[in-house]
Amino acid sequence: NEDVPKQKFDYQSDVTRLRKIVINSLYSHRDVFLRELISNANDALEKLRLTSLTDKQVLSGAEHLNISIKAIPDKDGFGQLVITDTGIGMTPEELTKNLGTLAKSGTSEFLAKAENSDATGTGNLIGAFGLGFYSSFLVADHVRVASIAAKSEKNPNPQQYMFSSSADESSFEIYPDPRGNVLGRGTEITLFLKPDALEYLSTEKLEELIHKHSSFASTFPIYLLTQKSIEVPDEDAEKTETEAPIPSPSPESDETDEDEAIVEETIEEVKKEEEPKTKTVAVDEWVQLNKQPPIWMRDPKTVTDEEYELFYQVTFKDNTKPLAWYHFSGDSGSGVSFRAIIYVPSFVPESYWQAGIQGDAKDVRLMVKRVFITNDLGEDALPKWASWVKAVVDAEDLPLNVSRETLQSTKFLKQLKTIITKRLAQILGRVQEEEPEKFKEISAVYNNVFKLGAVEDSKSREKLAALARFSTNQRNSTSLDEYLENRKQGQKHIFYLADMGKDTAVLAKSVFIEKLHARGYEVLLLNDPLDEIFVQNIKKWKAVPFQDVAKAGLKFGDESPEEEKAELESFAEQFKPLLTWLKKEAGELVRDVIISNRLVLSSCAIVADAHGYTANVEKLMSSNTSQKKGFIYEYTKKLKYLEINPRSPLMEGLLRRVEQLPTEEEGRDLDAEDELHEVASVLIDGALVRSGFEVPDSNAFFTRVDRILRRSLGVSETAPTDTRVKPAPPVDPELPSEEELVEEEVPFPMPPQQPEQVKWEVEEIDDDDNLIADVKVETARHDEL
Ligand SMILES: Nc1ncnc2c1ncn2[C@@H]1O[C@H](COP(=O)(O)OP(=O)(O)OP(=O)(O)O)[C@@H](O)[C@H]1O
Fold this sequence. Notes:
Layout: E1 7-10, H1 13-25, H2 32-52, E2 67-73, E3 79-85, H3 92-100, H4 107-116, H5 119-129, E4 140-148, E5 161-166, E6 171-176, E7 186-193, H6 203-214, E8 222-233, H7 237-240, H8 255-272, E9 278-288, H9 305-316, E10 324-331, E11 337-344, H10 350-354, E12 364-368, E13 371-374, E14 390-395, H11 404-408, H12 411-434, H13 436-456, H14 461-467, E15 471-472, H15 480-485, E16 494-498, H16 504-507, H17 514-519, E17 524-526, H18 529-538, E18 540-541, E19 544-548, H19 561-574, H20 576-586, E20 592-595, E21 604-608, H21 615-622, H22 625-628, H23 631-637, E22 640-644, H24 649-660, H25 670-690, H26 698-713, H27 738-741, E23 764-765, E24 771-772, H28 777-780
Parallel strand pairs: 2-8, 12-14, 16-17, 16-19, 20-22
Antiparallel strand pairs: 1-6, 2-3, 3-7, 4-5, 4-7, 5-6, 8-9, 10-11, 11-14, 12-13, 15-17, 18-19, 21-22, 23-24
Helix pairs in contact: 1-4, 2-6, 4-5, 12-13, 12-14, 13-14, 13-18, 25-26
Bound molecules: adenosine-5'-triphosphate.
């Protein structure tokens, strides 16, 4: 062993940091190591199986595809745990690169968070990050990885190499395995267990862990070496103590029965040769732990909620529980039958909203006859709204050697897109109807996704818009259907007010809805940028059009036109001098000044023309700088009215003052004119602000407000403010030292508690959403396009 030339490598610094976190703060999570190693073994086997579809020679070296786990206690009470797979294996270069560096996205962000949080916090973080191979150091103070890559054209003569590292070293060694190519193909990980981790030598403990966390992790058999006592003839005792071979059947065959046959046969033979004189000996036996067929192949009635959850967590490496799921089988219409489980995760990753409009679905695991093919269905495999979905789909009839490229052009993939989006909308609709409390949790996460989907996906528009929830002036959450149930007689519109970024409590007090609110009408209060886009795309719900209440032309639906007209005309006549004067004062800012029919409390407001921009749309447009410059934008921006409330004492007072202004040139009172000029200016700017618009020059506005305040306080309007300040010190040519730059540490804010799980029973529904009970899954769960 010592003669072999060993090459020493330093770990990449991120790996050193990660190993430190693992070793220092994750004691209570150390069970995860086994799950992580089994998951890596499974990935390696899947890679091998996929490669073998196009290059058969990779299969040489080891006959079967499996994972085996063996505990080896030693005489001093310590011991090793060995996890072996016959997967794709690693070349010495791959050992160095894969195990010595961290190539995950978000690594430094994760490390910084983990280093700043306590053990529990770190535990939560790992679930999202995945420690992978490094979790070995939770239980082992020394790890050895022997690996031999699969034979290929590029590597026709692979050699078995060893990676060796201690938990407390910042370097690792790579060298040819002194035992030679004993593995044939694949990877063997030997954990030299820490003195306080010897519980992992117990087969009961290992069995329990694998059942709990990993029985769904692989479609390949997972074997555990166990010991059982049998009676044997005295002289045969020596023979039976040798280790049994792993009874790996091919995963495509009916493995369960064959396995049992092998074990029983051995016992039978032993029994046949039984002599009267026997003794009890321990024999090694490889027991397959994941004998059940994969979960998606089982009858949904036999799968428990816990099994669905665990399968989700293991398969998609998410330690939170899914909010809902749906398990079904169907026929793609082009003759491909399949089984699938679709999950609604408990969160939408932040990157979802940051990424472009293309739905980059990374978590639809497509299999063909249990063989994993890909989880990359291409960029437009799903509409953006559904691209967060996590699903497994197992197709029966696609050609097995379908490559990713040819796959993308198959009809099946297009149909899969329709199947998944349709089913997803269906699951969500059903939770909404049948489990309102659970739907609340889903809504808290996905409300904007529903709105986005209604805009983007015309096929699912109705279903998704029905799921969207809105705040109103009367309640926190309503669907469009519930809104219509509350519609008043004669009301011909769904009223909404949109102002992105504003709190709904503030919107509820908006000048635009004061009359609607006072009269008891319900108004949707929209404060997300998506909302405006949503209503403009949807336009109507159940034939009732949306009406932006910040626009001219608001109708309640119960007006008597004659009376209203007469009243407005009489006010217009009475306020004519003020309207004319204000129009001159407002200049270019508005098209006209008119008597308002919508104000109750406020004195005035700026209302957009039916074709103009409301404050919200103006904000949306101005965030897009290219649109800002156009002539149409500038023109449309001016399509505004200043509405005044004829019942407001302020307006009445202003009318009187305007009427008192001498019209003749010689009698002009310039001071009074200036003062009124200022009042008008503050009034118009105030109306803009109150209506959500930006004031053209906010400095000038506040200088005027300042002057009016001084006047009302009796302070001199012209007295200057003391504007002296201490000047900055002279230029410093030196950079500040590190001590000078040290800032107070801000503790890392912990994420909120996970929402409670939503249980979902799998039931059969047909395309008209009717429930079909008690029909066998093979025939009943059917998806047709
Ligand atoms: N048993 C194995 N057989 C072949 N390659 C392996 C095996 N275990 C690990 N590797 C390689 O080492 C790399 C690093 O493994 P590690 O577990 O640290 O991260 P990961 O598997 O990529 O991520 P995660 O485990 O979080 O999903 C893997 O991507 C894989 O290429």
